[in-house]
Amino acid sequence: MRVWLLDTGTLVIDQSHITWNQGAGTPVRFPTYGVLVEHEDGLLLFDTGYDLEHVNEVLPFELPEQEVSQTIPAQVELCGFAASDVAMVVNSHLHFDHVGGNKHLPAAEVLVDAREIAQGRNCEPFEALGYSDRTWDHGAARLVPISGDVEVAPGVRLFETPGHTIGHYSMLLTGAPDSRPMLFIADVTYTQDSYDRGVQAGFHHDPVAGVRSIQRVKDLAAEHRADIFLTHDLEAWGTYRHAPEHYTI
Amino acid sequence: MRVWLLDTGTLVIDQSHITWNQGAGTPVRFPTYGVLVEHEDGLLLFDTGYDLEHVNEVLPFELPEQEVSQTIPAQVELCGFAASDVAMVVNSHLHFDHVGGNKHLPAAEVLVDAREIAQGRNCEPFEALGYSDRTWDHGAARLVPISGDVEVAPGVRLFETPGHTIGHYSMLLTGAPDSRPMLFIADVTYTQDSYDRGVQAGFHHDPVAGVRSIQRVKDLAAEHRADIFLTHDLEAWGTYRHAPEHYTI
User: Fold this and answer.
1) What is the spatial distance between Cα B131 and Cα B123, in angstroms, rounded to a whole number?
2) A80/B contact by beta carbon, under 8 A
3) Predicted local distance difference test score (pLDDT) of residue A92
4) What is the ipTM of this complex?
5) 10 Å Cβ neighbour count for A234?
6) A97 is catalytic
7) Is A202 on the interface with B (CB under 8 A)?
8) Which of A76, A174, B13, B50 could be joined to B97 by an S-S link, Cβ 3.0–4.6 Å?
9) pTM, to two decimals
10) Across the A/B interface, how many CB contacts are shorter than 8 Å?
């Protein structure tokens, strides 16, 4: 498999949003990205970043920085494909910074946890901003509700890791035996520091489930000898390869 | 019934701890207090404030301000009783700022939600500071686990309002027909602002349950035409009668 990390721009939140109840008062800029996987079954994209127009309209206080080159169509083209080549989208969950590019992928089946779809359509009051971008739910979207751990293609496994949201998934990519598997934990924890200390984000649906999911991704990483990829850590992001550079596993 | 609010001093937390994920970076000083009820069945105390020595040792960053006159024994004496006269303690929940005076009440039965007792003894990692004062669990404590809505004495009713913690109770006092019932919502919401807007505290065990409990206390207040008493709102606290002044209902 070839794997590209697609840069979809940055946002700013408070440190206490990253490490629940800790560090209030310090703004932190953090990255968002999608993961493009070229697989023998087709082109797959895990998460699609945020839509700049939506954030400017609904959450301008998160100070978005996203160039045209950091939109999903531009990033997919950077890897030598067209947006219409993407056959399958998996959304780890339906928060606005993970679904913003869905609407640009007309040919894709969109796999999302079944409870997550229901929650995205009818969320708790405290989740309203998280689920504020509903464009994933457009009429032509080919939503495929999934549940439980599932292997969506050989070597592409999704693991249930709820807590941050009700139907949150992490993705494990397993390639050639001599390569390190890649584990994308999405928003189980945002940063290396919070991963190491086991601190979930201030945004969450079920913090007890969140504690279990942090342990789960640590166990998965150990069991599969996988490299962990953090979603919202600017320092870690700086150490990853960005499209058009890629990983081969 | 005669009802006294016992001043047990103040603490400082961040605004985002009071209004979950909102207002990060602004420190807020807030009151803590107990509710002493002189009832024909005996003297009852709902919550017992914090222990200064404990906070100075474990949470000094909450900048406690508590005079000797603001300890539970001193406050109970201010109302004309001795600490040993208190026959029943009810803890809304077992966080340190609601149980600190328990150890000074040797004669009391101590009513606490059964799940709350288990949680206080073996909590989630994110609850460790909240449950850090374990002196309520001393060997001589006469703990009485309770569950469900319960009338602990005529006119003294406890209502399950979980979310902030797993076994959180609110207390409704109903007196003479021509008096307004008093509803003590403990930590369902901390302030008038967060009550009005339906925003729970950043400290919580189950935020979905928390949303339901906010609605529940609002429904209870409407049904019983009760006055709401907020626990951690310095401005509201300034409008209440403080011991030795009392309410008669």
Assistant:
1) 8
2) no
3) 98
4) 0.95
5) 13
6) yes
7) yes
8) B50
9) 0.96
10) 66
